[in-house]
Design goal:
327 residues, elongated, single chain, 5 strands, 5-stranded parallel sheet, 53% helix, Rossmann fold
Length: 327
Amino acid sequence: MAGDCFTLPLSTKNQDTAEQLLQTWQKGHMHPSTLLYGLNHGAAVHICQRLIMKALGGAYQPNKPHPDVMWLGLSEDEGGKQSLSLSIEQVRGARAFAYKSSVTGGPRFLIIDPAEALTPQAQNALLKTLEAPPKGVYFMLISSHLHALIATIRSRCQKHPIHDHDFDTFQKGLMMLNPDAAYDPLPLKWICALKHGDYTAVQQLEDFDFEGFEEGCDQLITHGNQSVLLKMIYKVAGKKDKRMVDAFVHGLLLALVDIKNYHQGAPTVVPENTLKAWAEHTSLAKVAEGYCDLSRTLKQHDQLGLDPRQTMINAVSVLGRLNGNPQ
């Protein structure tokens, strides 16, 4: 894999955040607890790695063990199923790491990613350490959802927003990571929008049929025909991959956002001629109502652990009401 955390591109706003953190470190004013929050996960990780490399020099290499660096993240069981939360036991292990002496004699870093996965009990346990952090230990919290963290943890951290990458930065980063790969522009536009410009996440959705998905949305919105998307649901559900399910439902949300953007003259993912046809078969009022209903469907799925197949069917039914001809 080509590229590293210093050469891979960042958008202007994210580059500014990275430079600000590096300058703060060089001046010796680094806060003991930093919170990087935003939906562009890859950018947050890159910025964090840049800071650690600056602090530890050549002794630290991303994705390789270092005695003074601990990454606390979601684990997988023997079957490859990923856990959904970070427990109080894991935080206790991280606290034990934090209170040990530095192996190299320099600073130590403890990265928690994703921080929103911390259970309430784990967050309270972590708070005790953040309130009185050991000298020379720096906590880096990475979170996609800022308000999933309790207010007292947020208040103990120096917060930095992480922004989406534009499509140009997304493409440049992807080409640096995979210089010999050839990509179809249509899926890339969808993935860039769904993953907030995180070019490190492209491989997660490479198997998703975005061409078929766009055609299914077109059939549903312009003709009230659900059959293309319903057939796709069974393929997606059969993969038993939460990321695929999320891409399907969030893709429907993105289709609605694109109709709104088309009306407002804002950038879109779907081609303009297709959006023109979509806009002719619905209204902004129906789009707004559909967006609220779809968001509610996704929230119920996440909170109640509903069957993914039924969640996708429900989502398609919501979109079917756009043109007043649900089937």
